[in-house]
């Protein structure tokens, strides 16, 4: 059974939130519920949410966490290197963008994520890749031939590395040693912008050529 993937462009930075459903249409997983999540909240009104998965804890990716977690009583998963980011606006970046948002905080995540971890959710298996560089705790989630890359890999682009804990060398290594080793036909669902494929990026990404 393939994933049913719906994307929502949320908030002033047009962050991609993903709503994933398996064989049971009444159950779902959310990846990166961003700011101003009203369209996403409406879409999940009658759904049971098994988990919120965060690719990383920048404010534009976690702005909708608390509203959805409280209304749906669902756990949040995040890499431990960014556990404090949910509670500290300076770390999640919301203090640095006063023209976009006020300080954002949420309660800590219920569960940690780790390299190689297998998450069994909505009848599917999601493999966790620790892909630092854009931020120290950035992760990507692979299910079959669908990869959710957060702000690591974009269509003909990569995540910025000038924010807290960012490191260009780590980002390039994450992409080359982990993501580019996936099959070329894997579809990449990034944190911003349109989807792409691993094969297309290996051939066309100007920042990290294969």
UniProtKB/TrEMBL annotation:
UniProt keyword Hydrolase, yes or no: yes
The protein's name: MBL fold metallo-hydrolase
CDD domains linked to this entry: metallo-hydrolase-like_MBL-fold (cd06262)
Domain of life: Bacteria
Pfam families for this protein: Lactamase_B
UniProt cross-references to SUPFAM superfamilies, sorted A to Z: Metallo-hydrolase/oxidoreductase (SSF56281)
Keywords for this protein: Hydrolase, Metal-binding, Zinc
Metallo-beta-lactamase domain mapped to chain residues: 14-192
UniProt KW Zinc keyword: yes
Record field: catalytic activity: 3',5'-cyclic CMP + H2O = CMP + H(+); 3',5'-cyclic UMP + H2O = UMP + H(+)
Its biological purpose: Counteracts the endogenous Pycsar antiviral defense system. Phosphodiesterase that enables metal-dependent hydrolysis of host cyclic nucleotide Pycsar defense signals such as cCMP and cUMP.
Necessary cofactors: Zn(2+)
InterPro entries with a match to the protein in the record: MBL_Glyoxalase_II (IPR051453), Metallo-B-lactamas (IPR001279), RibonucZ/Hydroxyglut_hydro (IPR036866)
């Amino acid at each position: 059974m393939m994933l049913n993937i719906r994307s929502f462009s949320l908030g002033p930075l047009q962050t991609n939130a993903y709503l994933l459903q398996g064989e049971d249409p009444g159950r779902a997983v959310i990846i990166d519920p961003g700011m101003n999540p009203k369209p996403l909240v409406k879409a999940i009104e009658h759904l049971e949410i098994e988990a919120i998965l965060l690719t990383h804890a920048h404010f534009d990716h976690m702005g909708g966490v608390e509203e959805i977690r409280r209304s749906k009583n669902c756990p949040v998963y995040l890499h431990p290197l960014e556990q404090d980011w949910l509670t500290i606006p300076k770390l999640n970046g919301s203090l640095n963008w006063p023209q976009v948002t006020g300080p954002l905080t949420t309660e800590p995540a219920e569960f940690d994520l780790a390299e190689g971890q297998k998450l069994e959710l909505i009848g599917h298996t999601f493999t966790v890749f620790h892909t630092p560089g854009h931020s120290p705790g950035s992760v990507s989630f692979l299910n079959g031939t669908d990869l959710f890359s957060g702000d690591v890999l974009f269509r003909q682009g990569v995540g910025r590395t000038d924010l807290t804990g960012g490191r260009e060398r780590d980002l390039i290594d994450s992409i080359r040693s982990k993501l580019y080793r996936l099959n070329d036909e894997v579809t990449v669902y990034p944190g911003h912008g349109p989807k792409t494929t691993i094969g297309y990026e290996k051939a066309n990404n100007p920042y990290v050529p294969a």
